[in-house]
């Protein structure tokens, strides 16, 4: 029996198929009992197997999400859908629309607009006094 959420790929703990609960008393043993009392709520089912069976034996197509084969398959499909498809599509779209690092294309467009403007006005692209001559420090003739 599947829980109503397992068809949506949500793994919820199953309370009906859980092993019987055992409680060990934490109180000090009285002289009558002699040891900590173990109380079983349900009668222990006799089992012929010795230990747990590998999930691969129960379900040859085990994906590692759940012991139930149907729930395991749904959880695998939902996990891969969100983990691969959505992450690649949304992540790729996000990376594509990030602004350009360094703004190189913006700088080139701005330079092309400035060149067109200066050609239209008849001004040289770069003036002969591009740098302020008062701020340039030239080495003296003695240093050579």
Topology diagram in text:
Elements: E1 22-24, E2 38-40, H1 55-58, H2 69-96, H3 104-121
Can you give a write-up of this model?
The chain has 144 residues and is mainly alpha-helical. The chain has a domain at 52-124. 35% of the residues lie in helices and 4% in strands. It is built from 3 helices and 2 strands; from the N terminus they run E-E-H-H-H. The protein has helices at 55-58, 69-96, 104-121, and strands at residues 22-24, 38-40. Strands 1-2 form a two-stranded antiparallel ribbon. The radius of gyration is 38 Å and the shape is elongated. The N and C termini lie far apart (95 Å). The model has no long low-confidence stretch (mean pLDDT 75).
> Major sheet: size, sense and barrel closure?
2 strands, antiparallel
Distance between the first and last residues' Cα = 95 Å
Percent helix, as a range, is 25-40%
C-alpha-based Rg, rounded: 38 Å
Shape: elongated
Structural class: mainly alpha
The helix-strand sequence is EEHHH
As residue ranges, the low-confidence spans are: none
Side-by-side strand order of the widest sheet: 1-2
What is the average per-residue confidence, as pLDDT, rounded to a whole number? 75
Q: What's the total helix number?
A: 3
Number of strands: 2
Strand residue percentage: under 5%
């Amino acid at each position: 029996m599947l829980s109503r959420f397992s068809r949506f790929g949500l793994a919820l703990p199953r309370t009906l198929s859980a092993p019987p609960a055992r409680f060990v008393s934490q109180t000090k043993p009285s002289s009558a009992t002699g040891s900590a009392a173990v109380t079983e709520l349900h009668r222990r089912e006799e089992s012929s197997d010795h230990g747990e069976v590998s999930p691969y034996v129960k379900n040859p197509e085990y994906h590692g999400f759940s012991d139930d084969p149907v729930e395991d398959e749904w959880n695998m499909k939902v996990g891969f859908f969100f983990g691969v498809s959505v992450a690649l599509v949304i992540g790729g779209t996000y990376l594509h629309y990030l602004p350009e690092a360094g703004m190189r294309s913006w700088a080139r467009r701005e330079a092309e607009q400035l060149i067109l403007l200066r050609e239209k006005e008849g001004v040289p692209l770069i003036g002969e006094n591009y740098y302020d001559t008062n701020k340039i420090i030239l080495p003296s003739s003695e240093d050579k």
